[in-house]
Amino acid sequence: MTKPLISIEALARRYPARGGGETTIFENVWLPIQKGEFVCLIGHSGCGKTTILNVLAGLDQPSGGAVIVDGREISGPSLDRAVIFQGHSLLPWMTVIGNIAFAVTSRHPEWGREKVRAHCQKYIDVVHLTGSEHKKPAELSGGMKQRVGIARALAIEPKMLLMDEPFSALDALTRGSLQDEVRRICTETEQTVFMITHDIDEAMLLADKIVLMTNGPGAKIAEIVENTLPKDRRPATMHKHANYYALRNHLLDFLVTRSKNFAAEIEGKPYDPRKPPVVRPGAKPVGVETLADDGSPRSAAIA
Amino acid sequence: MRGSLSLRAGLLSVLIFAAFIGAWQFATMPTTGAAGDVDPEYAALVSGAAAQGAKSAFPTPADVGATIWGHLKDPFYVRGANDQGVGVQLAYSLGRVLLGYLLAAAVATPLGFLIGMSPLVYRALDPFIQVLKPISPLAWMPLALYTIKDSGISAIFVIFICSLWPMLINTAFGVASVRKEWLNVAATLEVGALRKAFLVILPAAAPTIMTGMRISIGIAWLVIVAAEMLVGGTGIGYFVWNEWNNLSIGNIITAILLIGLVGMALDVALGRAARLVAYRE
After folding, report:
1. CATH no. of B86-277
2. Chain B interface residues facing chain A, Cβ-Cβ under 8 Å?
3. How far apart are CA A262 and CA A221, in angstroms?
4. pTM
5. Nearest Cα to Cα of residue B238 among B250, B258, B249, B252
6. Is residue A297 very low, low, confident or very high in pLDDT (cuts 50, 70, 90)?
7. What are the residue boundaries of the structural domains of chain B, listed by start?
8. Does the ipTM exceed 0.85?
């Protein structure tokens, strides 16, 4: 196994509870992310998803543990990790190209005006906003704003893209087309992505690996689901694939029941938070055999 | 429909104005009655025609119109220290207001920025601001006269001190309440402190800062009249006081009208400026 691009190690977040003591939102979260991987984190509200993303972005500090990039613990935000925020968070007094240029000149302060403009234009074209360069965010629809946010993040050519429910504020139609575009862009550029969502179909379309988080407080990574759909899946056709329902049902079962009862589920069973079980739900076997670290088959229960 | 609304509103305005002028004309019509209905003390004070009741000392609209026309025909004459055109007096007042106001802006904007950026400074300075803010600017006048020993500069100081607070408080508030997500954008882009201040915080806070500036210019224009009544010499406030001593009510009304018009012009100008920095989210 190659060295991961970014590695989350023993991350924890605790808040002082009322009446003394501490509330643990999540703890002992370990997750390596390989270069070029698209990783989706799924869990219910309150499990600390956004906190994990903010720690990855360098905008928040964990109570314990660390995030390691290139063998070093991250200490703050970096241009290597671009964030696409849940609200588009464009600067409303700048035009579309102004917002992107603000990011580009932050990345390349030495670039001339024309070079910055050409670079911005390239990414405006990528997200299909050609013709809207000089509009203000208020003149754009929700989907177009989010496209600008995506273009801004891509334009700085980060090592890693962090997305916090980027499509949750959009209507279903816009969401579908934008998801498809993001999948295309990320596949073409082999972009490493960490995304938060609670939309199962979104995760199945976009992610190579889907990380399942149990409910907070005391949330942890329950298992890592590898996407068993083909790499060239499309939203229009992926539901016809043989593995679709096995994968979908597995994720749905987790969100509906297992995320609540995970503590009871692992009681008495070997569970190593550093190496959560990896599951590949497919059409044929009902219970999927996965290889544990020692190489022996281990059964990952599918309820 | 919109055109017809503004047309009707304009018509109503003209009607209200006509009714006001009519009432004024009616109230100041020369009475033929006896002098008995005039308060003797007042009669002693104003003397002359008014005391006899033949004609009120309060001018008719036509009188005031003639006075205004007289002033507007020749607003910039200077015939000695106590007889200068109303335009010259207004220019003196405007000069004082702008000078004190710009000085206040030069202090309040950077200081407000600092206060807004730092919760520590915000808390440390808050008690001083809360105590100093409600003080009538004219209360500073004796202190200013004593320390500065120059009435002209004292008037400017009073304008400075009254313009300071709205700008300071609004700048600090605007800077402190810049949306967290915009700051996060700047943080993830590793934007430097100066670039963040000028390209993110300043534009984000600009509408709030401009609101403070607009409040300040209004207050400054209110205060200059009173300040000039106190310090005397020149200015529209001094003009009003001087004409009161001359009992020239026509001139006073002219000055009042001009003060209102200039105040409105200042507010419109700042309103335009505010629109330049406004943004829609």
Report:
1. 1.10.3720.10
2. 179, 181-182, 184-185, 187-191, 195, 199-200, 203-204, 206, 277, 279-281
3. 10
4. 0.83
5. B252
6. very low
7. 2-56, 86-277
8. no
